[in-house]
Write a structure and sequence with these properties.
- This protein has about 270 residues and is an alpha/beta fold.
- About 40% of the residues lie in helices and about 15% in strands.
- The protein has one domain: NAD(P)-binding Rossmann-like Domain (Rossmann fold).
- It is globular, with a radius of gyration of 21 Å.
- It contains eleven helices and eleven strands.
- The strands form three sheets. Strands 3-2-1-4-5-6-10 form a seven-stranded parallel beta sheet.
- Helix 1 links the parallel strand 1 and strand 2.
C-alpha cells in the first residue's frame, strides 16, 4: 500500500524533518504549489534521488492519489483547526504535550515532550540561548529543579515515518525520552560541548576538552516530601503501538550529547545570520 501525506504546515521545522526522513522511506507528500518550490530547494538531494516524493497540491496532484488503494493522511501541527484538503484522509496531529496535553480530536495525536533541538523562539530555545551566553562567558546560569526527558527530532521523525507507512489505531500517544535528566545534568553536558566547540574554533585545546566525561552516574537520592519531581510522560501506548508495527517498540537511538550538538549548531547559525 502506497503512503501519501498532505503537509498542512510544510515550512514548520517538524514537517521539514518528517519530510526529510519519510521521503527516503517511500512516502509521497502533497503540498501547496508555492511550498513545493521551497521544499525542492531545501531538500534538493532527497528529491534528486526520489523526485516523485513531492507532488503539488492541485487538481493534477490530487488526481494522482487513488484513495481507495492508498493510505492517505493529513499532517497537522498544533491544536488549531485547519481545512482538510482530503476529507477522507486520516489525521495525524503533532502537538506540544506540555502546552496542550492529550488531544481529544479524531485521528492520531502525537504529544511531544522535550524535543531537541527546540522550536524557534520557544521557551526551550530561549533557555539554551541563555546557556550559550553563560558558557561563553564561563558563568553558570540560573538552574531550575526540573527534570527533562529529552528526545531527538530525528527519533520523532522516525516515529511519524513509521506511522505513515504502517497505519496504526487512532488515539493519543506521548513521545519523550526514556531517561530523566535534571537541569543541572543537562547544563554540564551542554557547557562541556560549548567549551569543546570554542576550543575547536580557536585551536586552544586542552586535556579538559578531550576527556570523555560520559553520562552522569545514577545515584539513589532521598526524596523531600515537599519536592515535586515531574513524572515521565506515559510511553506505554506508544511503545505498544510501535511494538506491533516494528517489533522493537520505542527505542530512541540519538544520544543527548548528539542532540545538544545540534542545539549548539542551530544557535550558532542563528547568531551568524
Amino acid at each position: 500500500m502506497s503512503a501519501w501525506c498532505v503537509l498542512t504546515h510544510p515550512m514548520h521545522h517538524l514537517s521539514q524533518a518528517i519530510f526529510a526522513k519519510a521521503a527516503l522511506e517511500g512516502v509521497k507528500f502533497l503540498a501547496e504549489p508555492e511550498a513545493c518550490v521551497e521544499l525542492r530547494e531545501r531538500h534538493a538531494a532527497v528529491l534528486a534521488a526520489f523526485p516523485e516524493a513531492l507532488v503539488a497540491l492541485n487538481n493534477e496532484g490530487l488526481a494522482s492519489v487513488n484513495r481507495d488503494d492508498q493510505h492517505v493522511v493529513q499532517l497537522l501541527i498544533g491544536e488549531v483547526d485547519e481545512p482538510l484538503f482530503l476529507p477522507s484522509a486520516r489525521l495525524i496531529r503533532v502537538v506540544d504535550g506540555q502546552r496542550h496535553g492529550i488531544a481529544n480530536s479524531t485521528g492520531i495525536s502525537l504529544c511531544l515532550h522535550d524535543v531537541l533541538p527546540p522550536a524557534r523562539d520557544s521557551r526551550g530555545e530561549q533557555m539554551f540561548r541563555a546557556w550559550m551566553q553563560a558558557s561563553r562567558s564561563q558563568t553558570t546560569p540560573d538552574l531550575t529543579e526540573q527534570h527533562h526527558y529529552w528526545c531527538d527530532l530525528n527519533d520523532v521523525s522516525a516515529i511519524v515515518a513509521t506511522i505513515l507507512r504502517h497505519p496504526c489505531d487512532d488515539g493519543a500517544y506521548h513521545v519523550s525520552g526514556r531517561r530523566g535528566w535534571t537541569t543541572a545534568e543537562t547544563w554540564r553536558e551542554f557547557d562541556a560541548l560549548v567549551q569543546r566547540t570554542i576550543a575547536g574554533q580557536t585551536g586552544e585545546f586542552g586535556t579538559e576538552h578531550l576527556a570523555a566525561k560520559g553520562v552522569p552516574v545514577v545515584e539513589a537520592v532521598a526524596i523531600d516530601e515537599h519536592e515535586t519531581q515531574r513524572a515521565r510522560p506515559d510511553l506505554g501506548p506508544l511503545h505498544a503501538m510501535l511494538t506491533e508495527v516494528n517489533g522493537e517498540g520505542w527505542r530512541p537511538k540519538t544520544s543527548l550529547r548528539q542532540s545538544l550538538m545540534m542545539v549548539i549548531a542551530q544557535l550558532s547559525e542563528l547568531q551568524s545570520t
